[in-house]
Write a structure and sequence with these properties.
Helix content is 35%, strand content 15%. By secondary structure, it is an alpha+beta fold. A hairpin with a 5-residue loop joins strand 7 and strand 8. Helix 5 crosses helix 6. This is Integrase catalytic domain-containing protein.
């Protein structure tokens, strides 16, 4: 576990260790890339070692609600009501990972980087496609909050000191005594007296009262002169 922080790299390291042990015992030597069965066996062994830290007899825990059972490989999995669902077996019954174990931390970190530094909720959803990590929600938050890349991409903005409001904004006066003007984007309309339906460009002048925030709209045919 201390050799790498990459979950898949650790599995390959364990796979090669198993192959070395098997080659020492057998006359037929295995060569070449790792097979799928070798990788699966190494992952199964790692999960079993991690689950040794789970206390199923703890009455204060919430393990009873998970309806835990043991599969044919000896892995503890979450039960449920999705047995007839058309989804992979690992999603129906995800394997359990011990709370705050080294394997679960490494898997969270690896998946967080693989998913381009996803947020805590997205990370937890991705983990639960294969595993049910005890205390996973807190571990997902801790993984994201301690990530250096995520910290740099989400800097804390500094608080700005606002200036004083203008005199016209804080003193009573008749509406539209002081008015702000703004022009809207051009719009294309047709006039009723034009049979051909030629499009004409118009602009909208927005008059905003400083005191009451009331709005008055005027239509302009061009921007050359005020009509």
């Amino acid at each position: 576990m201390d050799l790498s922080n990459n979950y898949f790299k650790i599995i390959h390291i364990v796979s090669y260790i198993y192959r070395f042990i098997e080659n020492c015992r057998s006359k037929v030597k295995k060569r070449g890339p790792l097979t799928t069965s070798e990788v699966n066996d190494a992952e199964t062994w790692l999960i079993k070692q991690d689950q040794r830290g789970i206390n199923l007899s703890d009455p204060s825990g919430n393990l009873k609600s998970l309806n835990i059972f043991q599969d044919d490989k000896g892995i503890l999995r979450v039960g449920g009501r999705l047995e007839k669902a058309s989804i992979p077996y690992s999603q129906k019954h995800p394997a359990i990972l011990a709370k705050n174990s080294k394997l679960s931390k490494i898997y969270f970190i690896t998946l967080h980087k693989k998913l381009f530094h996803v947020d805590p909720q997205g990370l937890l959803n991705a983990v639960r496609l294969r595993f049910w990590a005890l205390g996973g929600r807190n571990l997902a938050r801790k993984t994201v909050h301690t990530c250096g890349v995520c910290f740099k991409c989400k800097p804390i903005p500094s608080s700005q000191i606002m200036g004083n409001l203008p005199y016209e904004r804080v003193n009573m006066a008749p509406p539209f005594s002081v008015t702000g003007l703004d022009l809207g984007s051009p719009y294309f309309v047709t006039y009723k007296h034009q049979r051909k339906g030629v499009l004409n460009k118009i602009y909208v002048c927005v008059c905003i009262c400083f005191m009451t925030r009331a709005i008055h709209l005027e239509i302009l045919s061009d921007l050359l002169r005020m009509q």
